[in-house]
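Extended Data, panel c. Modelled sequence:
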Amino acid sequence: AGIAYVPGDRTEALTMQRSVRENIALPFSAALHNWGPINMAQERSRVVSAIERLQIDTRTQREVQRLSGGNQQKVTIARWIAAEAQTILCFDPTRGIDVGTKQEIYKLLRELADQGKSVLFYTSELEEVQRVCDRVIVIFGGRVVDVFPVELADEPALMRAAYGLPRGAKVDVGILADIHSSPVAKP
């Protein structure tokens, strides 16, 4: 359906004992419209293009399990670039990777959005919101409580929204700590 998922735990998405090429090409074999042979030339072209675009370390076509965490996450994203996904759901995609690779992933997600792809980005790191997003949607208690442009998404605004408080509300940080530790009221 053109929708792809990039988990924070890359081991959920990768076949660790397989090569980089096999992991990126996985959607091609899953999306056979007719039970004929896979167009290997097209697959190879898309895989090579994705590897080059994300600068994935593929020395000796290693097994994915031997790559760094950042390169593993790039393989996860490259898979969906090669498959030409139109909507990418990213769930904490930069968790556990080095700062340089984070910057590469931010840039790539920005480029995909600029090309007209939809990128939904969940993050547990508030500073990532302003680096990646155009718009912020905050969900509290299973419902959308606020939607605002990224220009207004500073840490206090995000924290107020995360606790279900109105955007202009004054907040005592000590109260937020008490609310967060309460067994009754959890965000």
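Residues 157 and 167 are 6 Å apart (CA to CA). This feature is highlighted in the accompanying rendering.
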